[in-house]
Structure formats: structure tokens, C-alpha cells
Design brief:
The protein is α/β, with parallel strands linked by helices. The protein has 2 domains: 192 residues, Glycogen Phosphorylase B (Rossmann fold), CATH 3.40.50.2000; 154 residues, 3-Layer(aba) Sandwich (Rossmann fold). 47% of the residues lie in helices and 15% in strands. It has a 7-stranded parallel beta sheet, with helices on both faces. The structure holds uridine-diphosphate-N-acetylglucosamine and uridine-5'-diphosphate. Uridine-diphosphate-N-acetylglucosamine binds next to helix 1, helix 5 and helix 11.
Length: 369
């Protein structure tokens, strides 16, 4: 058994790390292909270092580009590696262009594909990620669904039930494995002079929010209103896409926003854990906030992760300032909150490898579902 593991962007590195570690623990032969869709130090190598991952065996160096260019380059560069390495399974995680290209390259060569985080649907076909999710799911042999919602979605789309395995999300493994060390090592709150429980944390990078200047301005108006209604700092580790759009549109940000470059995983866990409220359009952060017990406002009209809303951990506010202020008021007036965890028990990588190596205990699977 040999496994090819594909990564390309920040969240893929973080969510694939537990799978890589599990391969190492079990002595399963594997190799990592990094598309280098993300390449800036703070979006890429910092995570290999912090998560103590081996350097990728192959780095495709594709970098940024238009969708077809990026996807096509990954396809072209990945094929000879797969022909040479002959893995039994190629694993991809999530919904990026790297995921679609990795899955397609393997599938065309008759190599089995395992899609981690299968079955997510926003039903918003304007999102490039939605196309990637649907196409990857339909060419995968192992669909590692997060929960019963995703399992049902895949079955409704006609995917063979035997291919679907409901296991949770590896985001839970990564988060639980790094909570303690992040508390020990991170000095970010001190460094930024933040008081625990007294700041808002913001992230935004969705094309729909930041690529159109009027939408980006709407988002900034929402933050203005939050600032006008509540005291405390607003910290914003800015995604390079958003940074470049602010520059392109010549937008100057108000002083009350504490803008910082993207931070490492250990620092970001602490920033999330101690925020009074998180405002985000990120997929992974919707999950992590929910797992950490911190309420969030999802800066989107829809989400492929409705579970955070369903359990009462998040509210969809889009770019609507009024909705955001109202939702924040409700959260901030509450003394404490708790909700169920819909995103995994922290052993998801183990379940995935049990299934691939055919050692999965059926009783265990029924328990998780
Ligand atoms: C990509 C994924 C998105 C995921 C996100 C995680 C797709 C279609 N999008 O979006 O699903 O949520 O990663 O963060 O696959 N840039 C840098 N340095 C980097 C990477 C990007 O400066 O290391 C800048 C470049 O200007 C680039 C822009 O960010 O053009 C966008 O990068 P890209 O990878 O195309 O999309 P993301 O917005 O990062
Ligand atoms: N993250 C990080 N530093 C940051 C912002 C995010 O380490 O400055 C982590 C975060 O903990 C989560 C992941 O990056 O695990 C989310 O990535 P992103 O929002 O870029 O992508 P998405 O999840 O939306 O695909």
C-alpha cells in the first residue's frame, strides 16, 4: 500500500497534517505532492515547520494564476509523478483548485482517489469551490464525509453508498493536537497587546467578498458599524488575496482596524480561542470557532457548513451590517454558551487510514454516524 498525499493551500496543509502523521505512525509508505498554490512563507512553509511535517517530496511550483491555468498546470505536472510513483490511493482534502486537479490526474490514470471533507455543498455555483467539490466527489472512490448531512447529500446525488464513509473532519484532529502547545508557545496576545475576551477577530478572502470593490466596501462598512456599536479592538490577519485587492482598489483602512499579516497556526488558535466574537468567510475558521466554543458571524449568504449554524454556534450575516450588529448584540449579552460538536472527535485521520488499509471496524463506523 502506497499513498499519494496532495496539498496546495494553507487549510489543506493544516487539515492533511494528521493524515500524514498517521501514515508515519503506521509505517505506511507515502509521498507528499505540494502544488504550491500557496507559496508565501506565512501561507505555506510556516505550517510545515509548526506542524512538524516532512518537506513535500514533490513541489510543483504552480503559484497563482487564473483558474484554468492553475488547475491545468497542476494536472500536467502531477501526471508524470503519479505514473512514476504508482500509488494505490491519492488523497486530496477540501475544495481548492489543487484538490480538483489532484483528483482528476489520479482518476485519469486509474488510481483510486480519496476525498477528505466530501459532500459539502453551498448550492452556490458562483463559488469556484463548489465546482471543485462536486467534480471531485463524483470521481472519487473513497468519499470521507464529515457527518450525516454530507452522507445524505452524496447519496441523493447518486453516489454508491459503499464509497461513502462518514468519519468527521480532520480539522478536529489538528485543532485538538495543537491546542495545548499553542497555549504554551504562542505569545500573540501579548505581542499585539490584546486582552483575552475583549477583541473581535476578522478574516475574509472569498472572491465574492473581496474581488468586487463595492462588496469589499460593504464588508468594511459592516466593520465600521461593529466598531461604532461595540468597544474593543478588531484584529484582522489579512489574507494575501484581500491585501492585493485593497491595494488594487486603492482603499485605505481606518485606524481602529488592527491589520496584521497572516499568522502561524499556533498563534491563530490562540487568537480564535480568546476572541469575544469571530467574523469570517473562511471554511476552516467556521469549523474551528465552533470547536473552540467561540461564537462566529459567517460573512456569507450561504454556507457548505450549515452545522455550525444548526448547533447555534454561528449566524449567517453576509455583508449586512444591520444583521451583524444585531447578531453580535445577542451573543455579547449572553453570559456563557455551549453547543454540540458536529465536526469530528479528533481521531478522524485514524478512521480514514483504517478504511483505506481495510482495517476499519464496522461497529466503530456505526457509532460515529
Ligand atoms: C484559495 C482557494 C480557496 C481557499 C483559500 C485558502 C481556490 C479556487 N481557492 O483561495 O478555496 O479557501 O485558498 O486560503 O482554490 N497569494 C499570495 N501568496 C500566496 C497565495 C496567494 O500572495 O501564497 C495571493 C496572490 O495575489 C493570488 C491571490 O492571493 O493571486 C489568490 O490566491 P489563490 O490561491 O488563487 O486563491 P485564494 O484566495 O488563496
Ligand atoms: N489560519 C492561520 N493563520 C491565519 C488565518 C488562518 O493559521 O492568519 C488557519 C486557520 O486556523 C484554519 C485555516 O488557516 O485552520 C483556514 O484557512 P483559510 O481561511 O485560508 O481557508 P478556508 O478554510 O476558507 O479554505
Amino acid at each position: 500500500m502506497k499513498i499519494g498525499i496532495v496539498v496546495g493551500t494553507r487549510p489543506e496543509i493544516i487539515k492533511m497534517a494528521p493524515v500524514i502523521r498517521e501514515c508515519q505512525n503506521r509505517g505506511i509508505p507515502y509521498f507528499i505532492i505540494h502544488s504550491n498554490q500557496h507559496y508565501s512563507e506565512e501561507m505555506d512553509s510556516i505550517f510545515f515547520k509548526e506542524l512538524e511535517l516532512p518537506s513535500p517530496h514533490y513541489n510543483l511550483g504552480v503559484g497563482s494564476g487564473l483558474h484554468s491555468n492553475q488547475t491545468g498546470n497542476i494536472l500536467i505536472k502531477m501526471e508524470p509523478i503519479l505514473v512514476d510513483e504508482k500509488p494505490d490511493v491519492v488523497l486530496v482534502q477540501g475544495d481548492t483548485n489543487t484538490v480538483l486537479a489532484g483528483a482528476l490526474a489520479a482518476s485519469k490514470l486509474g488510481i483510486k482517489v480519496g476525498h477528505i471533507e466530501a459532500g459539502l455543498r453551498s448550492y452556490d455555483r458562483t463559488m469556484p469551490e463548489e465546482t471543485n467539490r462536486i467534480m471531485t466527489d463524483h470521481i472519487s472512490d473513497y468519499l470521507f464525509a464529515v457527518g450525516p448531512n454530507q452522507q445524505m447529500i452524496l447519496q441523493k446525488e447518486g453516489i454508491d453508498q459503499n464509497k461513502i464513509h462518514t468519519v468527521g473532519n480532520t480539522v478536529s484532529d489538528s485543532l485538538f493536537q495543537h491546542l495545548e502547545i499553542s497555549a504554551l508557545k504562542s505569545t500573540i496576545l501579548n505581542d499585539l497587546q490584546l486582552t483575552a475576551g475583549d477583541y473581535f477577530l476578522v478574516t475574509a478572502h472569498r472572491a465574492s467578498n473581496v474581488d468586487i470593490s463595492s462588496n469589499l466596501m460593504e464588508l468594511l462598512h459592516l466593520l465600521d458599524e461593529m466598531h461604532a456599536n461595540y468597544t474593543g479592538t478588531i484584529v484582522w490577519p489579512i489574507h494575501p488575496r484581500t491585501q492585493s485587492k485593497l491595494k488594487e482598489f486603492n482603499i485605505t483602512l481606518p485606524d481602529y482596524l488592527q491589520l496584521i499579516p497572516p499568522v502561524g497556526y499556533l498563534d491563530f488558535i490562540q487568537l480564535q480561542k480568546h476572541a469575544k466574537l469571530i467574523l469570517t468567510d473562511s471554511g476552516g475558521i467556521q469549523e474551528e470557532a465552533c470547536l473552540l466554543g467561540v461564537p462566529s458571524l459567517t460573512l456569507r449568504e450561504n454556507t457548505e457548513r450549515p452545522e455550525a449554524v444548526e448547533v447555534g454556534a454561528s449566524e449567517l450575516v453576509g455583508r449586512n451590517a444591520e444583521k451583524a450588529v444585531k447578531a453580535a448584540k445577542q451573543w455579547l449579552s449572553r453570559e456563557d454558551y455551549s453547543w454540540d460538536n458536529p465536526f469530528g472527535d479528533g481521531h478522524v485521520a485514524k478512521y480514514i487510514l483504517d478504511i483505506i488499509t481495510n482495517t476499519r471496524n464496522i461497529e466503530e463506523e456505526e457509532k460515529i454516524v
